[in-house]
Amino acid sequence: MNQMFVRRLRLVVALSALALLTACAAAGVMTTTDPAKKLTDALDLFDHLDRPLPAERFIIEARDAYLASGDRVGLAESYRIYALFLRSVAVGEFADHYRSSGFMDASITYEKRYSGALTYLSRAEHLYLEAHRSDMLSNIYFHMAMVSQLNGNLADACAFLDRSVRANADYSAGHPAAPVEVPQGYSSFREAIDARKKTISCP
């Protein structure tokens, strides 16, 4: 068996394995054309089921649908979810895959995924501000803080936590009847943020 034949055989086997992986990645997940449902499914896949491969595809499909329809708020949400995907534990567990094959956004490498997450959160922030969706800003800044902490930038993390508190207070002042989502175990959003600040030794 000559070397050329062996190399071709290995290539065929590798391509077949890749095709099988792609086909099986979303097994068990109901297909949908609704981009909002795609994002919900993606969040569940990478946050609870440790299945980042189909999750990323769903997020990108949702993003493309929102771009095509001109839905700027939907686009912002797709950017926010992609940022959460990039910083997720599930992606870390597939480190070898992402180091060798990369992400669907080819500008992001595995080693720079936290910087990529911050970029996507910044894009989401811009679109939410543009759409006057101030209700989403405290969440955006909170996740910016978490990603900054993962990236080793504790000063930035503390600053984003402060911005999250201010954004929450500003929105609550203008919408006193609006419910505020408070993390379990805390009596207020401010208390939860103060606890996080203490954890990372913010001044």
What's the topology here?
Elements: H1 3-25, H2 35-47, H3 52-69, H4 72-86, H5 89-93, H6 95-101, H7 113-130, H8 137-150, H9 154-174, H10 189-199
Question: What are the defining features of this structure?
Answer:
single chain; 203 residues; mainly alpha; 0% strand; globular
Notes on the protein architecture:
It is a single chain. With 203 residues, this protein is an all-alpha fold. Helix content is 71%, strand content 0%. The protein has helices spanning 3-25, 35-47, 52-69, 72-86, 89-93, 95-101, 113-130, 137-150, 154-174, 189-199. Helix 8 (137-150) packs antiparallel against helix 9 (154-174). The longest helix is centred in the N-terminal third of the chain and has 23 residues, at 3-25. The radius of gyration is 20 Å and the shape is globular. The model is unreliable at 11-25 (pLDDT under 50).
